[in-house]
Inner membrane protein YdcO (Mycolicibacterium neoaurum), 169 residues
Amino acid sequence: MAAQNIPGVAVMNGFGYQIRWRPALTVTGVASLVAAPFGGHAVNLAAISAALAAGPDADPNPRRRWIAAFTTGTVYCVLGLASTGLTWAVLAAPAGLVQAVAGVALLGAFAGACAGAMTDESARLPAAVTLVVAASGTTVAGVGSAFWALVVGVIAHRLFRTASTTPRT
């Protein structure tokens, strides 16, 4: 409850809305109890949903932003009801299709992240080394490649930064 409710309230407060804790936690707690027997996840003041519905992008007029919150909630309920059918469709898909579609969907984000990481010439090689180690899937002492990528990336960054700042004679 705290993992989403506290950030959710913080987001709402950031947009100028005052949330009363006791009623909010009572409603989310009771809703979680009602949803639990049906496999429902905890009901909470989700920070991302709150940020989407409470900000000026939802509507410049703060008094009309409830429409975005209502629409978001309605869509979530419809998606929740349709999730069983969607799960069956995903499970019926040929092996690898869902991963391929997800990979294609992430190509733009990946390209943007690579472009950002490789923009600074002094950090280009450490960024590339970090990516290669992370993508390798290497496990050492039971610790996965994401951790080792950070370690190797930091070491490479320090080494190449030191090498580039050392005066040549």
